[in-house]
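To whoever is on call:

I kicked off a structure prediction for a single chain this morning and the downstream step that reads the tokens threw a length-mismatch warning. I double-checked the sequence; it's 400 residues and nothing unusual in it as far as I can see. Pasting both halves so you can look.
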Amino acid sequence: MSQMDRRQALRLFAGLGAAGLLAGCGNDDTAEAAAGNELVSDEPIKIGLIAPQTAGYKNIGDEIARGFNLFLEMNDQRLGGHQVQLVVADEGETVESGKAALDNLLKQGVLALTGVVNSTVMLGIRDTVEQARIPLVGSCASPSSLQSVVYIWRTSYVNNEAGQALGRYVAENVKGKVGIIAPDYEAGRDAVEGFRTEFGPTDSRIKAGPVWTEYNAEPTKTFFRAKIDQVRKGNPEAIYCFYNGQAAVEFLRQLRADGYKGQIFAPGFLTEGEVLGELKSNEANDVFTALNYSPDLNNAANREFATAFRQKYEATPTTYAVASYDAAQVIDKAVRIAGKNPTPQAVNLAMGKVGLIDSPRGEWQFNQTRTPQQKWYLRQVRRDGPVLSNVVINELATLG
């Protein structure tokens, strides 16, 4: 089967699924569009991508851009049959910079938006997106408090879900005390709350409570020492934490330098992207993470995606890239359903009719909160030849 034929077949399957799940919400025209009729239009559409291009979250921003651009490259630079102009705006690190990026894109007349890494930024731009009535398919940031939205969809996860997926597993497999440490900001608090809820918030093994660190995307080489000493005073058998990017590198490095040799559990962002490339084996030993994706997942969509990603970028694909690749898939389907002359409001309405997404992480679909219903996997850091890799060792849960 050719690549184009395969895509048509997947669209047909997804369209049939959407028709079954959303009976009464569409009509014959939208069902036919979802089935993948190859609409090709001379009218270009403009998509706005909000992503960090500088400082601590730049690596994640780069991954988001890579995932979206890879889908475009594999689909003739088109979404829903329309030629695409992708406009990138720098999210920066603050709500103010995120709002400036959004305002810049709205002035340019975008049909839809995607991206956003920082959960605080996502909450900060929420009302502007809703008032502008432009669909935002967020591909990273997803705070649990982001509710009752109409124009914001997310292809990543809800921030508390990775902690939920790990909580019960750790409770069943660790007999002693579990120390908890995380940054005191939206995503960190969500990650801790999800873990504690599933572990058992009154369990004596976590009664010491979480140790909070300041939020810092680029911490110094001594930044975590005092807080690490604090969490280790309880003599924990295992530690649950939440960090990503350069903060994850420094946390793991400083934790091991402090003499801690036990197991570490965390949402998968702790070892995602370029983090493993900066760590030594002893620094990443006995690290277990929960995530919705791993490059070694054995399904056709992942084999196609991972091969293309490695060939283009000479790098291992990440969950950030997958979520952005899927955001492009969602917009592609929604624009096609919306018809020849799509408007932002028509595209947003069509988001609810896209059905199953054939993703590298495995098939998923939007739930009522406009987030994915998807599987979560337990991964362990292991050596793969000369490099460290995240290897799936078990399925944890289906959430969403």
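Update from on-call: the warning came from a stale cache, not from the record. Cleared it. Sanity check on the structure: The two ends are 33 Å apart (CA to CA).
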